[in-house]
Specification:
Helices cover 57% and strands 0% of the residues. By secondary structure, the protein is mostly helical. It has a domain at 2-54. Helix 1 (2-26) crosses helix 2 (28-54). Residues 103-115 have a biased composition (Basic and acidic residues).
Length: 115
């Protein structure tokens, strides 16, 4: 862990030294040209992220302002019928199978101590 931190700080110090050396010898234009590819890459990544988060637009601008469609009477009747057919959340379902006890005898001495 200490080795990784040492490598990190050596890299930071060398990077700062290189930037200061370049600015002192070549000016700020050199610094701008050195950092330009980084700015372009970060800008492209931000653009791609925002484009991906926007989702499909289907030709309607942002894709979020779609008109709300009122369901028909027939659809509402179907939904109401499905809701009535569901069981109440407090009741348990009955399953067509059951647990069958094994034929081995249970011995309390053989049970693990952590149970």
């Amino acid at each position: 862990m200490i080795r990784h931190a040492l490598l990190f700080w050596i890299s930071v110090i060398l990077g700062v030294y290189g930037l200061v050396y370049g600015v002192m010898n070549f000016g700020f234009w050199w610094l701008f040209l050195q950092l330009l590819p980084t700015f372009i890459l970060v800008g492209l990544l931000v653009f791609a992220y925002r484009l991906a988060m926007k989702g499909p637009s289907y030709g309607s601008g942002s894709g979020r302002s779609r008109p709300k469609v009122k369901p028909s009477q027939k659809t509402m009747a179907k939904v109401a019928g499905v809701r009535k057919g569901q069981t109440a959340p407090g009741k348990r379902k009955t399953y067509p199978f059951q647990v069958i006890e094994g034929s081995k005898g249970k011995n309390d001495d053989q049970l693990p101590k952590y149970h």
